[in-house]
């Protein structure tokens, strides 16, 4: 008898924990759902959607979403999952990440909202996540938005995933997910952990610069928090010096390092060495014509354009490491401007 | 380095063993074992459906051991009446169309096999919630050369979704389930299962976008409840229609939907007026016109739905019997268009010749396969105790104080009534209009004559058909098989309890727009070894006597 | 009795706590950790003429034979136009060039070799494909972004023995992000190598299916026996059926030969009733069975002669290019 009862209870305990292996969306949805809104604005014709997603980030009704043609209107409409309609206007937009900050007109009360944290998400690849968004505007009525489940697939450098401003630092990463979020209307939606914590915001539909495939990604909370801090401050007028950086032309390269890259016939011309200046740093280091430059300073370079871009970013350097392919072998070449004593 | 490749080959053999002893999280592995078990459980009833030439196809799910399988209308549309079905055990079997529902994108087929087939177990699609784990099984891109389904896993992303009809099509997805489990072209018509492996719906649609027709995490399934309600109607071999309330509503921004037009088709027994505010329908709150359509679309015509309206300050409750939304001709025209849309571009849908005996296929206007209607009619009458021999007559009597007080004679050419209300006769061969006697009964005597014709297999009626199952007069009423007879504008529907087969009720309308007569049969006693009703209770809310009882029944056969 | 119930309750609570503790570990991450030593990041520098959208393709590869520097990856980025250069970054941080040895067009796999051997990679194992079951967990792994932070997508096995038995199917997201990478089981065992396969083996169609919930992985039983062939520089193609057959629905029409008049002992009117030990009663079944074979393989055929009587013979299968001309 005692034995049987023990078994029963242990089984109950196990079942209770198995139940958690099921998704716990039921438990977290009452908290998460009301914080997300469907955003309706301009568009609706010519293949342009007039809908996207956003979410409250303050009790006073600040809403974060992506900047898009949907917002090209004086007022946008926000619809909550319960069907409440709110009017909102754009406060400011962020060209760096393509975000927009909205202010909703709350008719009293406080908005249920996510707290933006400025630390990078502690979530790890393989962790369960939910993506919640107004994809395809499926939820037209007073009904909850669409929920997809998956795992955090990993992290990728921001610049590799999307053509955001190249001045954004490389170490900043976006979150990749293994659910398809690259859908009309999904941008501005949220990726939350299985405990309902905000991990990131679904970004606009973009093709990956690495694979060419449509990417399923989210801008992590820390980037969002930084952006919102920026947006809440008075705008700074950019100085003209910031854009002074220019690509060195071929002659400058030849003067400094002593090699000529192949003429850039197309944006995809491979970075072959066309010529090496006798007695230059390049020749001393062993660089040869017809070498194919595959890495410059640890960055892969698939074309003349990419090689020039890296050389630009390193224009003050006194040393330059190249990895070249020569007759099926990889050869490491270090160019050195500082003459040995 | 010789033998290095061999090292890997060895690893193949040892793979499973080398991790046997390693510590692993217990819980995810337990759920993995459950998923493997579920996949195995849902596989046998999942079928691949092919157009006979093998050029196109889709999926389906067996729902009865006799080989009835549900699929999408748009899967069978290019097939004609016959199709090939691949079973996961590798068998390729023949199948025939049974019934179609072009508006709801459902179809029922019958798979021919010489032994009972596996079939799916229904789950309850009304109690599912967003976030519940689900499985999809089917034949995407016709990958299953061996007819083993592809199984994908995900969650419910949304419930009660409404998907607008496409242009030039009746097809509308109402109250459907949305899932992120992969649904690709070819998955159409296949099953959506719960984590426990119970059937929740029939997959049929997905949102596709810039990448063309591949899954992007948004698929839709017709809910299992809707499919279950339509199942018997499809089994009738008919081209099944969707329903209209008989009135339309308009969304308002400040109030609930308002009744904006009332049509002639509205059930005359329904208490709804122009300007009423609709609060609930079928027990569900409604806030928009879409909400209303989302509910109506899931019930076949004939279904009684309760509704609550506000008229001024007053709350009223009433029931509406849903009416068909289209005429037979409208349905046929729409099917033609939709079938053409499913055919490869530039090709005319071909009229495939049918190579089946008449017992399995028969053509008739308004039917996908008339042979199945004949089968169902036969089935309903055969199990019904109140079946009559042709030419037999019924004589009901009631005595009061030793005197004959009431008498009702029903025969194949007339019905005679004599009682406190007076004396009336309804002749089968009426010259201009059928008898509406007794007064304010809605034509009860003609109704009983029609019933007599149906029960005795008489040949005087214009048509008799099996309709499907409907609840008895009320939303929560007992499920009944319904036989529908039409004669010169009169319509009689006989209800047979699904459980016992007994004839339990009769609904009759003399002509459209006239308030129907609805009676429930009562006082069953044994006569000649069979149970016969000896009275009725009026269910139409008419002024006539609420009920009638007889003491004695004499059957002349 | 009261005490007993308390004891029981605490035992139950303990059971819950223990299972939760285990649950805190992440199966996918653990599995990926086990295969990290065999993952490599590949970069293909494309020629200018190449029709790919990208000038560099980054892909994932799996070390299948460390001592000989052999890497298996998918055809993605390598076929039809081989790149100008291939670089390999391995788990130790070394970058070296790789050579393309051979292409298995049938399974969409490519064998690469590096001059410098890789460190031993004990501890990685392949699943026995015969024991893989639909519904079991899958973890698709790629490393096109960062080799030390592989990307993970999860799902289940959707079907086994697909495409004639050369691949298993999964609903985990499979795309250029992980083509060439391994598909793992929950114990970290390699179920197969992810490749862009499709029924007609139309590379474009296959790539278009990425992230659609239909992905394929070629199990070890399929690729290991072919490594020596690829290593010798012999490319592999899918077998094509060299004979024309009676017209009609492939589902129901028997495989009766109509052309050519004579080929390897087969003639007009003969019906194929078995291939490789599998009975076939239709052209559909014949093609399904054929899917397992490569061009150049000889396969036992059971044939019912036009003149009556059944016979067995060996038929050498060809590919599309070497198919004998038919009149």
How would you describe what is shown here?
The complex is a heterotrimer of chains A (341), B (557) and C (327). With 341 residues, chain A is an alpha+beta fold. In chain A, the strands form four sheets. A six-stranded antiparallel barrel of chain A has the order 1-2-3-6-5-4. In chain A, strands 7-8-9-12-11-10 form a six-stranded antiparallel beta barrel. Chain A is elongated, with a radius of gyration of 26 Å. Chain A has helices at 2-21, 25-32, 158-161, 221-232, 250-256, 281-285, 304-313; strands spanning 36-40, 51-56, 62-66, 76-79, 85-94, 99-104, 128-133, 146-157, 173-177, 190-193, 198-202, 217-220, 259-261, 273-276, 292-296, 299-300, 319-326, 329-336. Chain A contains seven helices and 18 strands. Chain B has 557 residues and is an alpha+beta fold. Chain B has three domains: 30-240 and 326-363, Thrombin, subunit H; 243-324, PDZ domain (Pdz3 Domain), CATH 2.30.42; 384-556, no CATH class. Chain B has helices at residues 4-18, 26-42, 73-76, 224-235, 289-296, 328-342, 370-383, 444-455; strands spanning 46-50, 57-62, 68-71, 82-86, 92-101, 106-111, 133-138, 150-163, 173-179, 191-194, 199-206, 219-223, 243-244, 247-250, 258-262, 277-281, 284-285, 304-311, 314-321, 323-324, 393-400, 403-410, 414-419, 422-427, 463-471, 479-487, 490-497, 503-509, 517-527, 530-538, 547-549, 552-556. In chain B, strands 25-26-27-28-29-30-31 form a seven-stranded antiparallel β-sheet. A six-stranded antiparallel beta barrel of chain B has the order 1-2-3-6-5-4. The longest helix of chain B is centred in the N-terminal third of the chain and has 17 residues, at 26-42. Chain C has 327 residues and is α+β, with helices and mostly antiparallel strands. Chain C has three domains: 2-26; 27-236, Thrombin, subunit H (Beta Barrel), CATH 2.40.10; 244-316, PDZ domain (Pdz3 Domain, Roll). Chain C has helices at 2-24, 27-35, 203-208, 220-223, 227-231, 283-290; strands at 39-45, 56-65, 70-74, 85-89, 95-104, 109-114, 137-142, 151-162, 167-170, 182-184, 190-195, 215-218, 244-245, 255-259, 262-263, 266-267, 271-275, 278-279, 298-304, 310-316. In chain C, strands 1-2-3-6-5-4 form a six-stranded antiparallel barrel. In chain C, strand 5 (95-104) and strand 6 (109-114) form a beta hairpin. Chain C is elongated, with a radius of gyration of 24 Å. Chains in contact: A-B, A-C, B-C. Chains B and C meet through helix 1, helix 2 and strand 8 of B and helix 1, strand 8 and helix 6 of C.
């Amino acid at each position: 008898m005692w034995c049987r009862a023990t078994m029963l209870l242990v089984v109950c305990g196990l079942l209770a924990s198995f139940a958690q292996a099921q998704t716990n969306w039921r438990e977290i949805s009452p908290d998460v759902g009301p914080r997300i809104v469907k955003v309706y604005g301009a568009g609706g014709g010519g293949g342009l959607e007039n809908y996207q997603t956003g979410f409250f980030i303050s009790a006073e009704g600040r809403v974060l979403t992506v900047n898009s043609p949907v917002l090209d209107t004086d007022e946008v409409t926000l619809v909550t999952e319960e069907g409440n309609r709110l009017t909102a206007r754009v406060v400011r937009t962020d060209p760096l990440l393509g975000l927009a900050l909205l202010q909703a007109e709350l008719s009293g009360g406080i908005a249920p909202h996510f707290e933006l944290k400025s630390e990078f998400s502690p979530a790890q690849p393989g962790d369960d996540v939910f993506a919640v968004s107004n994809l395809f505007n499926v939820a037209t009525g007073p009904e909850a938005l669409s929920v997809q489940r998956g795992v955090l697939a990993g992290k990728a450098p921001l610049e590799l995933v999307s053509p955001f401003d190249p001045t954004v630092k490389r170490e900043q990463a976006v979150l990749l997910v293994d659910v398809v979020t690259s859908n009309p209307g999904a941008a501005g939606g949220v990726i939350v952990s299985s405990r309902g914590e905000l991990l990131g915001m679904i970004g606009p539909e973009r093709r990956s610069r690495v694979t060419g495939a449509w990417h399923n990604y989210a801008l992590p909370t820390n980037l969002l928090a930084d952006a919102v801090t920026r947006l809440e401050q008075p705008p700074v007028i950019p100085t003209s010096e910031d854009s002074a950086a220019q690509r060195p032309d071929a002659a400058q390269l030849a003067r400094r390092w002593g090699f000529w890259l192949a003429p850039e016939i197309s944006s995809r011309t491979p970075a072959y060495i066309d010529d090496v200046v006798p007695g230059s740093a390049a020749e001393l280091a062993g660089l040869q014509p017809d070498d194919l430059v595959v890495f410059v300073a640890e960055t892969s370079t698939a074309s003349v354009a990419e090689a020039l871009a890296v050389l630009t970013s390193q224009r003050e350097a006194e040393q330059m490491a190249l990895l070249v392919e020569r007759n099926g072998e990889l050869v490491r070449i270090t160019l050195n401007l500082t003459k040995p004593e | 380095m010789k033998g290095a490749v061999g090292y890997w080959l060895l690893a193949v053999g040892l793979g499973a063993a080398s991790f046997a002893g390693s510590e692993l999280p217990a819980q995810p592995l337990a759920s993995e074992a459950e998923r493997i078990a579920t996949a195995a459980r849902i596989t046998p009833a999942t079928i691949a459906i092919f157009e006979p030439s093998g050029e196109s196809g889709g999926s389906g799910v067996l729902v009865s051991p006799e080989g009835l399988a549900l699929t999408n209308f748009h899967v069978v549309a290019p097939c004609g009446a016959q199709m090939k079905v691949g079973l996961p055990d590798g068998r390729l079997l023949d199948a025939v169309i049974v019934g179609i529902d072009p508006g709801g994108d459902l179809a029922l087929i019958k798979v021919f096999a010489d032994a009972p087939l596996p079939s799916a177990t229904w789950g309850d699609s009304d109690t599912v919630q967003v976030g519940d784990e689900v499985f999809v099984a089917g034949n995407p891109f016709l990958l299953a050369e061996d007819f083993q389904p592809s199984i994908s896993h995900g969650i419910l992303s949304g419930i009660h979704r409404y998907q607008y009809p496409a242009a030039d099509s009746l097809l509308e997805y109402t109250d459907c389930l949305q899932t992120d489990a992969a649904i690709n072209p070819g998955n159409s018509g296949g099953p959506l299962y719960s984590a426990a492996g119970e059937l929740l719906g029939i997959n049929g649609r997905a949102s596709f976008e810039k990448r063309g027709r591949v899954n992007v995490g948004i698929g839709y399934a017709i809910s299992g409840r809707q499919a279950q309600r339509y199942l018997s109607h499809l089994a009738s071999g008919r081209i099944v229609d969707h329903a209209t309330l008989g009135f339309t509503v308009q969304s308002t921004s400040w109030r609930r939907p308002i009744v904006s037009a009332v049509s002639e088709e509205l059930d005359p027994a329904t208490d709804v007026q122009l300007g009423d505010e609709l609060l609930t329908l079928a027990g569900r709150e409604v806030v928009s016109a879409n909400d209303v359509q989302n509910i109506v679309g899931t019930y076949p015509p004939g279904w009684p739905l309760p509704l609550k309206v506000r008229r001024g300050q007053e709350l009223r409750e009433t029931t509406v019997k849903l009416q068909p939304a289209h005429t037979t001709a409208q349905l046929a025209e729409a099917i033609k268009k939709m079938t053409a849309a499913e055919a490869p571009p530039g090709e005319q849908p071909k009229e495939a010749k049918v190579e089946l005996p008449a017992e399995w296929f028969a053509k008739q206007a308004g039917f996908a396969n008339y042979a199945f209607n004949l089968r169902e009619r036969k089935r309903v009458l055969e199990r019904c105790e109140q079946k009559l021999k042709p030419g037999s007559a019924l004589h009901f009597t009631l005595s009061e104080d030793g005197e004959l007080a009431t008498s009702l004679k029903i025969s194949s050419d007339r019905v005679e009534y004599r009682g406190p209300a007076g004396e009336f006769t309804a002749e089968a061969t009426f010259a201009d209009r059928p008898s509406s006697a007794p007064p304010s009964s809605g034509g009860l005597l003609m109704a009983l004559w029609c019933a007599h014709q149906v029960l005795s297999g008489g040949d005087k009626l214009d048509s008799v058909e099996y309709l499907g199952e409907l609840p008895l007069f009320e939303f929560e009423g007992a499920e009944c098989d319904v036989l529908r007879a039409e004669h010169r504008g009169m319509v009689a529907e006989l209800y047979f309890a699904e459980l016992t087969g007994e004839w339990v009720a009769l609904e009759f309308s003399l002509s459209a727009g006239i308030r129907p007569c609805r009676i429930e049969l009562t006082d069953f006693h044994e006569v000649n070894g069979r149970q016969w009703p000896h009275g009725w209770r009026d269910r139409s809310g008419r002024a006539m006597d609420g009920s009638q009882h007889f003491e004695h029944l004499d059957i002349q056969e | 009795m009261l005490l007993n119930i308390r004891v029981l309750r605490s035992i139950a609570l303990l059971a819950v706590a223990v299972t939760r503790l285990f649950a805190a570990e992440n199966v996918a991450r653990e599995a990926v950790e086990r295969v990290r030593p065999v993952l490599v990041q590949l970069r293909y520098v494309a020629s200018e003429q190449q029709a790919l959208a990208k000038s560099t393709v980054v892909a994932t590869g799996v070390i299948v034979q460390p001592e000989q520097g052999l890497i298996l990856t998918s055809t993605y980025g390598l076929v039809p136009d081989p790149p100008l250069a291939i670089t390999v970054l391995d788990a130790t941080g070394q970058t070296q060039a790789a050579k393309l040895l051979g292409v298995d067009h049938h399974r969409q796999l490519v064998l690469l070799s590096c001059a410098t051997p890789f460190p031993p990679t004990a501890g990685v194992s392949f699943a026995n494909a015969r024991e893989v079951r639909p519904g079991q967990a899958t973890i698709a792994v790629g490393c096109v972004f960062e080799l030390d932070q592989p990307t993970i997508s999860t799902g289940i096995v959707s079907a086994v023995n697909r495409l004639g038995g050369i691949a298993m199917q999964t609903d985990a997201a499979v795309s250029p992000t992980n083509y060439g990478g391994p598909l793992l089981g929950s114990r970290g065992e390699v179920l197969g190598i992810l490749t862009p396969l499709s029924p007609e083996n139309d590379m474009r169609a296959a790539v278009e299916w990425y992230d659609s919930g239909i992905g394929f992985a070629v199990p070890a039983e399929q690729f290991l026996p072919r490594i020596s062939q690829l290593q010798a520089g012999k490319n592999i193609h899918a077998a094509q059926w060299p004979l024309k057959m009676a017209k009609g629905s492939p589902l129901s029409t028997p495989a009766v030969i109509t052309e050519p008049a004579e080929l390897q002992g087969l003639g007009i009117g003969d019906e194929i009733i078995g291939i490789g030990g599998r009975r076939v009663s239709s052209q559909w079944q014949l093609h399904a069975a054929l899917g397992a074979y490569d061009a150049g393989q000889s396969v036992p055929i059971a044939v019912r002669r036009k003149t009556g009587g059944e016979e067995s013979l060996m038929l050498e299968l060809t590919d599309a290019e070497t198919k004998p001309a038919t009149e």
